[in-house]
């Protein structure tokens, strides 16, 4: 069994900030927009180095999405930055008409996704954004798991021509993915090989899945862990190849089970190889105030929940 | 283009609009007819356009239609400006057509740079295009058209605030002041007070065109707008138009906002606008 360790914890949003700063130095067409959350999105370095390529929009997210769409007309590659809630639900029609339907090369970069922004509560948390974005024709949906992967993804999406939703978060989490990774949109990464159960996780739940696999290993259960950073387009083959070996699957995400990764995986399985599946996700609910750890525990989004679901799904085989 | 030619083209555009909506028994003739003179003048006399179509539109003026439901006039003017064959107007709103009910880039129709139809989004897009021109050191201008009822959408006011705050002075936004929307007069549906006063309060330069269906008045007004560009402030043209202009029974009412004429009505309307350049 592979062992994953970490020496430091960092927030994924800082990975976005670092990736954006690097793009500022390497790609003169990259521009950035923010709706009064520069510090939260870690955009300062890009702004310091490229003030002329940064647009402070103010608290006006609808206008920001439209301006981003317009900037592509003129060859720019706009990266918008605000919280996931204000990046999606608040501006759904602007994204739908001016960006997705118009096929504009806009990168919607969303921090503070899921429950883990914590104490601000449900007005600022969002557990529906993956569903909202994946339903838009042509929209790529990415949810990264740590600092390094978020930085790599930020850099990679600049080279992809088309609208992208990049989702990351607020809390510091273990940095365990390699610093020099090449991020490939739509290509799942197998982190742990196993034969008894497949665990497909995205975002902050990837580390939890590795922790769960460790405990399961101690119980004599061999878990395969897949880091599925891209929810759309989904890596169908990676999922199908894995369940062909294990015969059951757990999906894990910081999102509502309705509309999330789990449903996308279920569709692939139903069409190709019906397989018992359990969902680690929120259960059609809003979040609430609390510390990130308290919330992830209360709503069943941690390694303990993954272990429980793994045991349950194995029993269903 | 000479005045006579502009008049002839406008009359032909009116015929196109009427025939397009009649054929598919749907579409929006009222606002389209009201803006025929404006769009003809804009595309033939005002904008600096390059041959052909390129999405980025470097070193040429760009136009964004925010009130996308007046697609019939937009399509007709684009076709007569050489973006696609005039005969293609025959496919308006039909299955597999590039001329969708509301304009879209999705089908690759030359001349269209953004989808519009869901109202209130065009000004923001235009601001982005204007910012891109500034970054590219491109001195061309961005033109837009919006309905007056459309100003009820809140996103416009985010964009109006941004434009003056950020000195977007390469933008000329025209408001079609026809005073009407689907449910009736704008003053009955949701009175907006002084639109001029509102734009001035947001620190825009405002130019009024009292007769927005008069070709000379439009040319004069848009020349003033052009002269006002590049001076640190966004420019707004308040264009007073008559919805349904050029067809007597479509004027002085909001009834033809989104309704097509029947056979007899079409005949009457076409008789009021005799063929000038040849029907498609």
Plain-language structure description:
The complex is a heterodimer of chains A (317) and B (280). With 317 residues, chain A is α/β, with parallel strands linked by helices. In chain A, 39% of the residues lie in helices and 21% in strands. Chain A has two domains: 9-174, 3-Layer(aba) Sandwich (Rossmann fold), CATH 3.40.50; 189-315, Rossmann fold (3-Layer(aba) Sandwich), CATH 3.40.50.920. Chain A has helices at residues 12-26, 38-41, 44-49, 61-72, 84-87, 92-101, 129-134, 147-157, 205-218, 236-246, 261-272, 292-298, 303-315; strands at 9-11, 30-34, 54-56, 77-83, 107-111, 140-143, 164-167, 172-174, 189-192, 197-201, 223-227, 230-232, 249-256, 277-282. In chain A, the strands form three sheets. A seven-stranded mixed β-sheet of chain A has the order 3-2-4-5-7-6-12, sandwiched between helices. In chain A, strand 6, helix 8 (147-157) and strand 7 form a beta-alpha-beta unit. Chain B is α/β, with parallel strands linked by helices and 280 residues long. Chain B has a single domain, classed as Rossmann fold. Chain B is built from ten helices and seven strands. Chain B has helices spanning 3-24, 29-34, 36-46, 71-80, 122-135, 155-165, 186-189, 195-201, 215-228, 263-271; strands spanning 62-65, 142-147, 171-177, 180-181, 184-185, 205-209, 235-240. The model of chain B has no long low-confidence stretch (mean pLDDT 97). At the A-B interface, helix 4 and helix 6 of A face helix 5 and helix 6 of B.
Task: Give a brief description.
Chain A is of the alpha/beta class. Chain A is built from 13 helices and 14 strands. The mean pLDDT of chain A is 98.
How is the topology of this model organized?
The complex is a heterodimer of chains A (317) and B (280).
Chain A: E1 9-11, H1 12-26, E2 30-34, H2 38-41, H3 44-49, E3 54-56, H4 61-72, E4 77-83, H5 84-87, H6 92-101, E5 107-111, H7 129-134, E6 140-143, H8 147-157, E7 164-167, E8 172-174, E9 189-192, E10 197-201, H9 205-218, E11 223-227, E12 230-232, H10 236-246, E13 249-256, H11 261-272, E14 277-282, H12 292-298, H13 303-315
Parallel strand pairs in A: 2-3, 2-4, 4-5, 5-7, 6-7, 10-11, 10-13, 13-14
Antiparallel strand pairs in A: 1-8, 6-12, 9-11
Helix pairs in contact in A: 1-8, 4-6, 9-13
Chain B: H1 3-24, H2 29-34, H3 36-46, E1 62-65, H4 71-80, H5 122-135, E2 142-147, H6 155-165, E3 171-177, E4 180-181, E5 184-185, H7 186-189, H8 195-201, E6 205-209, H9 215-228, E7 235-240, H10 263-271
Parallel strand pairs in B: 1-2, 2-3, 3-7, 6-7
Antiparallel strand pairs in B: 4-5
Helix pairs in contact in B: 1-3, 1-4, 1-10, 3-4, 3-9, 5-6
């Amino acid at each position: 069994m592979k062992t994953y360790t970490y020496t430091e914890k960092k927030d994924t949003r800082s990975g976005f900030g670092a990736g954006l700063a690097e793009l500022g130095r390497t790609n003169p067409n990259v521009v950035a927009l923010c709706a009064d959350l520069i510090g939260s999105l870690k955009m300062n370095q890009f702004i310091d180095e490229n003030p002329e390529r940064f647009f402070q929009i103010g608290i006006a997210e609808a206008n920001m999405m439209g301006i981003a769409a317009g900037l592509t007309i003129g060859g720019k590659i706009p990266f918008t930055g605000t919280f996931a809630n204000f990046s999606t639900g608040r501006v759904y029609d602007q994204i739908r008409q001016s960006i997705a339907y118009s096929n504009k090369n806009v990168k919607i970069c969303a921090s503070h996704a899921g429950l883990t922004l914590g104490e601000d509560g449900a007005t600022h948390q969002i557990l529906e954004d993956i569903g909202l974005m994946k339903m838009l024709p042509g929209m790529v949906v990415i949810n990264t798991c740590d600092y390094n992967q978020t930085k790599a993804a930020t850099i990679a999406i600049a080279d992809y021509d088309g609208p992208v939703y990049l989702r990351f978060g607020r809390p510091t989490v273990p940095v365990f993915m390699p610093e020099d990774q090449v991020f490939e949109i739509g290509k799942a990464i197998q982190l742990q090989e196993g034969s008894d159960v497949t665990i497909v996780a995205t975002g902050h739940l990837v580390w939890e899945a590795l922790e769960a696999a460790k405990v399961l290993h101690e119980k004599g259960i061999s878990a395969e862990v897949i880091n599925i950073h891209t929810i759309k387009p989904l890596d169908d083959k990676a999922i199908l190849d894995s369940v062909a070996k294990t015969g059951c699957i757990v999906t894990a995400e910081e999102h509502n089970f309705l509309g999330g990764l789990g449903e996308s995986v279920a569709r692939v399985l139903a069409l190709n190889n019906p397989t018992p599946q359990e969902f680690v996700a929120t259960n059609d609910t809003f979040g609430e105030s609390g510390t990130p750890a308290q919330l992830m525990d209360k709503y069943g989004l941690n390694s303990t929940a993954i272990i429980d679901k793994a045991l349950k799904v194995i029993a269903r085989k | 283009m000479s005045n006579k030619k502009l008049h002839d083209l406008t009359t032909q555009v009116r015929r196109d609009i009427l025939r397009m909506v009649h054929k598919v028994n749907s579409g929006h003739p009222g606002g389209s007819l009201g803006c025929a003179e404006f769009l003809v003048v804009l595309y033939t006399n005002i904008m600096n356009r390059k041959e052909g179509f390129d999405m980025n539109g470097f070193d040429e003026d760009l136009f964004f239609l925010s009130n996308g439901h007046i697609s019939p006039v937009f399509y007709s003017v684009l076709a007569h400006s050489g973006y696609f064959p005039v005969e293609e107007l025959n496919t308006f709103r039909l299955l597999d057509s590039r001329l969708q009910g509301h304009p879209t880039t999705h089908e690759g129709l030359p001349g269209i740079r953004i989808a519009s139809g869901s109202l209130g989004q065009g000004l923001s897009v235009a601001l982005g295009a204007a910012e891109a021109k500034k970054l590219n050191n491109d001195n061309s201008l961005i033109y837009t058209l919006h309905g007056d009822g459309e100003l009820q959408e809140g996103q416009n006011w985010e964009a109006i605030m941004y434009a003056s705050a950020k000195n977007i002075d390469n933008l000329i936004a025209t408001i079609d002041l026809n005073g009407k929307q689907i449910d009736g007069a704008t003053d009955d549906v949701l009175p907006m007070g002084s639109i001029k006063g509102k734009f001035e309060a947001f620190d825009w330069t405002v130019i009024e065109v009292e007769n927005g269906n008069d070709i000379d008045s439009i040319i004069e007004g848009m020349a003033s707008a052009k002269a006002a560009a590049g001076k640190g402030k966004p420019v707004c043209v308040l264009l007073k138009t008559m919805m349904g202009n050029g067809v007597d029974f479509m004027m002085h009412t909001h009834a033809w906002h989104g309704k097509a004429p029947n056979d007899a009505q079409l005949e009457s309307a076409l008789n009021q606008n005799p063929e000038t350049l040849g029907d498609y």
